[in-house]
Design brief:
heterodimer, A: about 220 residues, alpha+beta, Lipocalin, nine-stranded mixed beta barrel, 9 strands, about 30% strand, globular, B: about 260 residues, mainly beta, about 10% helix
């Protein structure tokens, strides 16, 4: 009797797992569909301690001490890839390309190439958002980005990085209501070892709004 | 990367809506041109001045549902020659003349503000199409995006006027008709400084003539500024083997220092 119950429970469990998996949105070609308007749940700051080399730590302390006066975001410059805002992001996904549209800070876009191309830094060797290529590993989209400049901050507190920054993001939807992004940050010039953390995003339940930093920023144009 | 703004003055002027002196108007006898929305270039001939060379030949790519797929990187929209100039109300005529005569010193775009609709830039733009959305990614002047929604038929109630308005698209056969309203009155249509009011209503008709060429017919309606609709025909050709750069206007914007007017 006990074994029968256990068998039934297992069967029910596997049925449940199967049916909830079926509810995960998929694209027509069977890939996980990451499309939607997402907003971060929790802090936008990087958690824990980054394994900074002394000179990088000093730069971070300096930025904190001068009250972020040189924050690129305050000058309507792009946030890059690691730094996020508390405003929503929209992911538009096609088989060849995923585009991340940000509402803030600069109301700009980032392209993630899914067409199998290799990194190409000929045009932009050091850019704000880098060069991003993505490939599928099961239901996770793994995005590899290099080619950064050293001007973006990793979060609002001013955590620095160098132009050797290499970011690997794993996008995964564990269920329809969540998007998890696991970040692995390598930066041999500034970090002694890779640093990994995960962020969770939830549906914003609204469209992204038009929000232009240059239109609202009273610092600019003086 | 920030590019030199003044360097594209001439090519922007060639975009047709622009300063008349910088453009070489084609004559009606020009055998290369038919002013019907199509540019016809005989084999071996050079494309008309100010127009991009014809894009690669081939059939129109299609979405899974059979609709034309506009996805791709396109070069900056160029106006066809010999188009009718806008008919402005007196205040608009006066303001445009003032702006032009003042060397466009107050052009919002030079201050890294959005270009709005339908301002053309000489930079590339990328169209990304899904069944529900046509997304326009703009290389510059500001590196931003515009969403054209294909899954609703009514405009949103706009409480705060927008730089890019609210765009909804519907299919008329092979042509995507994009209807946009809800604009603010801040942007200029071109470097000449053609103005508009918040009554602005823009209809764009996107037609991918073949693999490499996109025709765009634009109707600008704004009874507060123009005494009749202003119709513009433009063309873009497909760029293959080229990527868009990351144009960040706010990075070292040295242009604004030179825009001092008279």
């Amino acid at each position: 009797m006990r074994s029968i119950l256990l068998t039934l429970a297992c069967a029910a469990g596997s049925l449940f797992a199967q049916s909830s998996a079926q509810y995960l949105p998929q694209t027509p070609d069977g890939k996980a569909d990451l499309s939607g308007v997402w907003v971060i749940r929790g802090s936008t700051d990087l958690p824990g301690e980054l394994p900074y080399r002394p000179e990088a730590l000093e730069l971070w302390q300096e930025r904190k001490a001068n009250l972020s006066k040189d924050d690129p975001a305050a000058y309507c410059l792009p946030n890059g890839v690691v730094r996020v805002t508390s405003l929503p992001y929209k992911i538009v996904q096609t088989p060849q390309l995923a585009v991340v549209l940000s509402e803030g800070n600069t109301h700009s876009f980032r392209r993630i190439f899914l067409d199998g191309r290799a990194h190409n830094l000929d045009l932009e060797p050091n850019s704000w958002t880098g060069d991003s290529t993505g490939k599928w590993e099961g239901d996770a989209l793994v995005v590899d980005t290099i080619g950064f400049n050293d001007r973006t901050w990793l979060d609002d507190t001013g955590k620095p990085h160098s132009d050797a920054l290499h970011v690997v993001e794993r996008y995964r939807r564990p269920d329809p209501g969540h998007l998890d992004i696991q970040y692995t940050i390598e930066d041999p010039k500034f970090l002694t070892r890779p640093y990994t953390f995960t962020r969770t995003f939830v549906p914003a339940n609204r469209e992204i709004q038009e929000r232009f930093c240059t239109d609202q920023n009273r610092l600019v144009g003086k | 990367m920030k590019r030199n703004y003044l360097g594209w003055t001439v090519s922007l002027a060639a975009a047709g809506l622009m300063l008349p002196l910088a453009r070489t108007p084609a004559t009606a006898q020009d055998p290369q041109i038919q002013v019907t929305g199509k540019v016809i270039t005989p084999p071996g001939a050079v494309a008309p001045k100010g127009l991009p060379p014809a894009g690669p030949k081939g059939p129109v790519p299609r979405m899974p549902d059979g609709k034309p797929d506009f996805s791709g990187i396109w070069n900056g929209q160029r106006a066809l020659p010999n188009q009718e100039p806008p008919v402005m109300l007196p205040w608009a005529e006066k303001l445009t003349a003032e702006r032009t005569n003042n060397y466009s010193a107050d052009d919002p775009e030079a201050r890294c503000l959005p270009g709005g609709v339908p301002r053309a830039a000489p930079y590339h733009y990328q169209l990304v199409q899904t069944p529900k959305l046509l997304l326009m990614l703009v290389e510059g002047n500001i590196h931003t995006y515009r969403q054209m929604f294909l899954d609703r038929r009514e405009h949103l109630k706009i409480t705060e006027p927008l730089w890019y308005g609210d765009s909804i698209g519907s299919w008329d056969g092979e042509t995507l008709v994009v209807d946009t309203a809800g604009f603010n009155d801040k942007f200029w249509f071109d470097m000449a400084g053609h103005p508009h009011t918040t009554q602005l209503h823009v209809v764009e008709r996107y037609h991918r003539r073949d693999f490499g060429n996109l025709d765009i017919g634009i109707t600008i309606e704004d009874p507060g500024t123009y005494s009749k609709p202003w119709v513009i025909q433009r063309v873009s050709s497909l760029e293959t083997g080229i990527e868009m750069s990351e144009y960040v206007c706010n990075e070292n914007n040295s242009d604004v220092l030179h825009l001092v007017g008279k």
